[in-house]
């Protein structure tokens, strides 16, 4: 399950071999990549070292949209055993396809993710990522089965029934978005069950940004180890990188399958390890939809391998380049506001951020939910004070009634920038 490479030198030699294959495959079989490379004056033959990749053009989400549905495919549709599609909030969805070999690699990588998070063969795994076109449900499912877990394909929603399944089938592992984990905590408590007393020991959470404070909240409420899983449909789905139980705080990138880069989000210039910027991935073995230098929009940082595996680490996602809010000249990520709310004792971890503009003035409104024993006036003043002191921002803080903000089965939508 775990990669066989013992040293960085060995890994990089294999990466170069696979990279040459991947770029040549994309160039030969996907008209999109051939046109893009020809226009940039590069051919697969120009790749003699890993750093030569920087000469190749980027791929973006908009390329998937513009080449909808099959323009990014490098194999005929009949060679694919499955297709997934992104939700496509604006216009056409993003379609991705998988050959059987692609699914096999995906299963192996997910099995690895579960293994390094602390899962093992024979564990009952409650999978509450959405099944269907979203890659979360089926992605985790295949890998969990490959590891030898007993999967409960709960999908999202029907929360009361999920509570019952958790109590009766006694899963050791749970996979879902961090926001849905909070929904499950509330539902367990409503049913008179202490979430700390369930059989759960490990949570594998991702698909949306979540702060360290949110992690602490989940770990406290469930008495589990909550670990971060990262991925995106265009690159594969979940399982591109995983936080290991023995190396918390960053995620190991499965570098035998994906070559990561960090680039300056404004200029696209590659940045050295240790510097923060936008994550870019090139697939090394994908057959159906190879990606060359895919701009994720996700902000992170690469760092040296830790603890025996030769793969580099990436920081937990700080935000997306297009998620950053600029409010009266102050740059802030929603995650920073979340940190402040979740660590406030009088509040529940549910919130909503609204940004509007009146004339030339940006207005920030943060709606929080009262927790137990919340004195609304005191809490409002405390949050507003910390927002000002920590980020220099004046915000209208609204303390809504407990349970009044909408809950989500999957990815939570919490930020509403009405200026866009
Ligand atoms: O969300 C795949 C996935 C499913 C990952 C289940 C993890 C678990 P998409 O729907 O294509 O795929 O959304 C990808 O979600 O570019 C990030 O912005 C965000 N994202 C995914 N994982 C994390 C994470 C799936 N661990 C987009 N932390 C990505 C922060 C994440 N953001």
- What is the global morphology? globular
CATH superfamily of the largest domain: ANL, N-terminal domain
The set of bound ligands, ions and cofactors reads: 5'-O-[hydroxy(phenylacetyl)phosphoryl]adenosine
Q: Which structural class is indicated by helix and strand composition?
A: alpha/beta
What is the percentage of strand-forming residues? 25-35%
Number of domains: 2
Output the CATH topology of the largest domain: Rossmann fold
N-C termini distance: 45 Å
Number of DSSP strand runs: 21
Query: What is the mean predicted local confidence, pLDDT?
Result: 96
Q: Are there runs of 5+ residues with pLDDT below 50, and where?
A: none
Task: Summarize the structure in words.
This protein has 420 residues and is α/β, with parallel strands linked by helices. It folds into two domains: 1-320, 3-Layer(aba) Sandwich (Rossmann fold), CATH 3.40.50.12780; 325-417, ANL, C-terminal domain (GMP Synthetase, Chain A, domain 3). 31% of the residues lie in helices and 27% in strands. It has helices spanning 8-29, 31-40, 61-66, 100-117, 135-147, 159-169, 178-190, 212-222, 334-342, 376-391; strands spanning 82-85, 95-98, 124-127, 150-152, 173-176, 202-206, 225-232, 237-244, 247-253, 258-263, 270-271, 276-283, 294-303, 313-315, 319-320, 325-327, 330-332, 347-358, 361-370, 396-400, 415-417. The strands form four sheets. Strands 3, 4, 5, 6, 7, 8, 9, 10, 11, 12, 13, 14 and 15 form a 13-stranded mixed β-sheet that branches. Helix 1 packs across helix 2 (31-40), helix 4 (100-117) packs across helix 5 and helix 8 packs parallel to helix 9 (334-342). The model has no long low-confidence stretch (mean pLDDT 96). It binds 5'-O-[hydroxy(phenylacetyl)phosphoryl]adenosine. The site of 5'-O-[hydroxy(phenylacetyl)phosphoryl]adenosine has 20 residues, from helix 5, strand 7, strand 8 and strand 13.
